[in-house]
Write a structure and sequence with these properties.
Radius of gyration: 25 Å
Helix content: 25-40%
Shape: elongated
Oligomer: single chain
Strand content: 15-25%
Largest sheet: 6 strands, antiparallel
Amino acid sequence: MGCQCSRNYPENSLFSESQLARLRDHFDHFYLYNATDRDRFHTVFYVKNHRTFENYLDKFFKKYMKWPEDFVGFVRAIEILVYGQTSVGRESVDTTTPKGSIERLADVIQLKTDTKHNSATLTKLLLAIFKGDPTLIEKIRPQSDNIAEIQEYFHKQFPVIENVFPDFLKQRLLGAKKYYVPHIPALNTLLSKALPFIYLSSSVFTHLLEFHCLYLSRDSILSFKGIEDGLEGYPSSLMIIIKLQDETVIGGFVERKYKKRKNTYEINSFLFSFANGYTVLRQAEKGNIVFLNLKSSPRGLGFGGGTSSEAKLWISEDIDSDSRITDHNNAGYTPGLLLKENSDENIEIIEIELWGCGDELARQHQIEYKNRKMKMMHEGEKFDAFEFKSFLNEYPL
């Protein structure tokens, strides 16, 4: 990356020559043709319901432009907003720690460090830039108006939103690709209600193409057997969503990436809860900390801890009485609560959804697995589940 430049472009820029050519074209329309082409400026930087945002950007650019034709100053301003630093006019890139992307956005709209309502102002603008549902602000709740703490909140909870501002500039000015927004099933399901938040909390969903319904308790019977049957033979990423008696919704996502060289899966996971706004507890330990125990008592599905008693979330074979949350124990996840208050207690589950998050091939693998199992059992042959799972390059949770 970077341009030594030959066509009267700034030297040592962090942008390539082709990118500088794009910026030059925009600059000429913004500041040279007919004094200022405001229609072009509006088209490039338009954000619905935030018309003043364009004016703030204009003021920020001009702060770095020493005169109206100062293209070098314009490039410096864009580099600072996109990368947090600039090398234009310098022998090397500034080595000081750059401000975070949300801190840079706060500079543009001239927010002071601890001004009241900073969190609401920034959240509304970020969602508008992202073209996200404005009602999501009800669950996106930075607990501080300090801009650095707001930056940290989005970094931990909503990384997709964290970088939406520099991504917006790269898309509008440089023609960068946009995030792919997955189809959210228009169904009366827990997934439909939870996915807009989950999507913003993990970049894995920016390239996720489809969801496979593996188990819906509302369409059958609430039982661990339903979870077990849904998991069986499915070789890709999974999401489980749970509604409790008090209407709280919690869940977990398990990302499974197949590593061809090692012929195994790399597994990562996170837990989420709508008990206090929307909270994500990310996996803090390397390796697989999600376990499915089907061989010995107690049988069940656990997230973290390694045992049913130490798991952050334990879904027991006896769903009605032995499922529990252990909030005092992080169990391999970042600190946080799944319930409204810090407590270790059995939970009363009233609804469960299990969704596969792989491609169509993953769904086809599961169908082949179950068809072969039924055929072998019908013919009286011994069905070796682990042998067939290996054939599918699948490994137990």
